[in-house]
Amino acid sequence: MAEQILILDFGSQYTQLIARRVRELNVYCEIHPFNNVPEINDDIKGIILSGSPCSVRDEGAPDLDLDSLRGRLPILGVCYGSQLLAHKYGGEVLPSTIREYGRANLDHIDLHHDLLKEMTHGSTVWMSHGDTIKKLPEGFKVIASTSSVEVAAFKIEGEKTYGIQFHPEVTHSTEGKNLLRNFVVSICGCAQDWTSDVFIDATIEDLKSKIGSDKVVMGLSGGVDSSVAATLIHRAIGDQLTCVFVDNGLLRKNEFEEVLESYKDMGLNVIGVDSKQRFYDALAGLTDPEAKRKAIGRVFIEVFDDEAHKIDGVKWLGQGTIYPDVIESVSVKGPSATIKSHHNVGGLPDFMKLSVVEPLNTLFKDEVREVGRALEIPETIIGRHPFPGPGLAIRILGDITAEKVKTLQEVDHIFIQGLKNHGLYDQVWQAGAILLPIQSVGVMGDERTYERVVALRAVGSVDGMTADWIHLPYEFLGKMSNEIINRVKGVNRVVYDISSKPPATIEWE
Ligand code: XMP
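^ thats the input. predicted complex w/ xanthosine-5'-monophosphate below
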């Protein structure tokens, strides 16, 4: 990837948001930890220093060799990043008299300034800091203030180095995007030409030269990430790619057949493997959620290894890994804590010894969707809700049987179809049904029943890290309950999950 902005992460919860906002401006950027700065080459047009949960006054606070960067290319310090600039060059950073958290207004703002143009007097910004810059070093000039924070923004005279106390990446900073645009476009001179099409062309070229005439194998899940990754690899190397889609018996109703059909329409060379019984056998009698997950993971590896062995001369393993999975988490304790444990390569299945190719490992989820749409992957795949790898096994509380899977598939199908038919599917981030390990008394016709209870769950979320239950219309929920109880044998009660994450999780197991 050519032109880019480098974001140095000091551990703020907002760092990924900064990257999102820069990329929304069609400028490529990467996040790297403060203690592992990549080589500064000509492709890097500017640096953003993130916030941090630490204070610059803490012993062992995250630090950086700013001398080697200042003046070489534009720098924007955000919150901690700005305090670090002030602190290191002789300014004074002290605890705020009151912790500043929430909205504030830039009452004084130097609108002639290149960083602040196209913003307005009184602009609302989001503050979240425990320290305040009380005194700036010599040569640093205040360019914006709020009623309680004099140094809300500063510039170092004679160089393109800036600091801001507020968070432009948070949408509550209503003109934050203007400020970031001013920085990356006007000040850093980025061309705003990083689009899905550019990404696709560059990635296909890159895959072609990396893979050459080798063969690649890849496991598909029916989800967005693996489907988009496979399509990109397929565009690059065609039938040198073989995909494997495993029916683990824990998918949604008809999902295996439907997804397999879509993949064939997309021209992918996919081997569909029916391994239902193998998974059910491995799961028999297991009730502990982690034991179930482990069994599923183990059998998946066995099945995939068997299939990979059937393809002659495979050199690469394709994977749908996306950016949030690879961003190194910053350790405020220093580089040693980021060392990863090493696998015992000898003990791994053969396919795991293949070289890995991950064409999406620089993209966020919504960017993967955009790329998928640009590749004309059907909306039924691009727009689908996330679905966990262990599938319905973690939505059937207790042990798994084929009969329970069948029951839950029917319930889930009614609910998901209902959401689609009522135009609610796209308003929900993830939805599903859970089969509870209890029975309850009911009455049907003249007969007393003693049957299963199912829970319905629908949540809104951005990334699955936090989630709110969705206020689905009562009328819709009533309809779903009727339909499920009338049509699914063995279920006589439906409840709706109204818990948010945290403290609950999205899945029940
Ligand atoms: P929780 O239940 O932790 O789920 O709030 C957050 C998101 O992760 C999915 N999830 C999983 N995905 N393997 C997966 O591939 C798993 O074991 C797993 N557990 C949860 C869940 O569906 C939600 O999208």
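Residues 331-345 have pLDDT under 50 and may be disordered.
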